[in-house]
Amino acid sequence: MPLRIIKADITTLNVDAIVNAANSTLLGGGGVDGAIHRAAGKELLEECKTLGGCRTGGAKITKGYNLPAKFIIHTVGPKWGGGKHGEAGLLRSCYENSLRLAENNACKSLAFPLISAGIYGYPKADALKIAVNTIQDFLSRSGDEMDIVIALFGDDMMKIAHENFPELAE
């Protein structure tokens, strides 16, 4: 199945690339970003220092280092500001730019966290809808050649997934 929603620690997934919900410096932080940096090792920080940061909605790629994944795609999601500051478009750009980078690097499997739905405050159900719709649009254009998971952390997130996308949630 080209797209699934699972409960998992993204740092443990055996996929070609994982996506990091990074901050604009790309130098590590809290949440998923901190977990990925800790699991990948200090070499990740050293490579990230050479990238010059990343704009909101953009994406950059690094090696996976100590992770099972070959690559880490770093994307910077928007901070929720009530929905009147282009947040939905910026969030879609995170997924689109990450998917393009994965495709350009011959990735056949990819895992996303739910971007911007943690400390950036994006409403979780809305963030999940944007994620699923953007990924499905990409897969329909690309011919479903990539296996993609949205890796959620926690039962509360899986409940939202089951309520909104029961056909995708495992």
Question: What does it look like?
Answer:
- The protein is an alpha/beta fold.
- 38% of the residues lie in helices and 19% in strands.
- It is built from 5 helices and 6 strands, in the order E-E-H-H-E-E-H-E-H-E-H.
- It has helices at residues 31-40, 42-48, 87-104, 124-142, 155-164, and strands spanning 3-7, 17-22, 59-63, 71-76, 109-112, 147-152.
- Strands 1-6-5-2-4-3 form a 6-stranded mixed sheet, with helices on both faces.
- Helix 3 runs parallel beside helix 4 and helix 4 crosses helix 5.
- The longest helix has 19 residues, at 124-142.
- The chain starts with a strand and ends in a 6-residue tail after the last helix.
- The mean pLDDT is 96.
Helices and strands in order:
Blueprint: E1 3-7, E2 17-22, H1 31-40, H2 42-48, E3 59-63, E4 71-76, H3 87-104, E5 109-112, H4 124-142, E6 147-152, H5 155-164
Parallel strand pairs: 1-6, 2-4, 2-5, 5-6
Antiparallel strand pairs: 3-4
Give the amount of beta strand, in percent.
15-25%
- Any idea what the shape is? globular
Overall pLDDT score: 96
- List the strand order in the largest sheet: 1-6-5-2-4-3
Treating each run of at least 4 consecutive H or I residues as one helix, how many helices? 5
* Helix content range: 25-40%
The low-confidence runs, each spanning 5 or more residues with pLDDT under 50, are none
**H-E string:** EEHHEEHEHEH
Query: How many strand elements?
Result: 6
Reported for the largest beta sheet, the result is: 6 strands, mixed
Question: How many angstroms separate the termini?
Answer: 12 Å
Q: Please tell me how large the radius of gyration is.
A: 14 Å
The SS-based structural class is: alpha/beta
